[in-house]
Amino acid sequence: MNLKEIEQREVFPGIKGKFVHGEQISWVFWEVEKGSLVNEHQHINEQIMHVVKGNFEFVLNGKPNIYSDGDVVVIPSNVRHSGKALTNCKLMDVFSPVREEYK
User: What's the half-sphere exposure (Cβ side, CA atoms, 13 Å) at 6?
Assistant: First the structure.
């Protein structure tokens, strides 16, 4: 499999992803347009977010922070979080267990 061959899907307005699923994890490669929002939510999946490129405002458990190139954020299971792209961004997320709704 090559990332270039995976079809990109728009999951939220301005947020497009390419999805790779294993038995226990999902790996997502996001392209996020400036100003796009991820509304506050929580899920059972543990998540690790990596900002590949750009500036992304991320609120974890009510605490806002701005993350940029190279930053990594660990999001525990069932913790509320949200985000906003301050610039065009490239992000990667890993989820465990698999994010079934992204299949």
Answer: 16
Under DSSP, is residue 4 helix (H, G, I), strand (E, B) or coil?
helix
Which tens digit of pLDDT belongs to each residue from 25-35? 999 999 999 99
* Residue 26 CB contacts under 8 Å (≥ 6 apart), including other chains: 19, 20, 45, 93, 94, 95, 96, 98, 99, 102
Domains (ranges, CATH) in the chain? 9-102 (2.60.120.10)
| pTM of the shown model | 0.94
Distances in Å between the Cα of 36 and the Cα atoms of 1, 2, 84 are 29, 27, 6
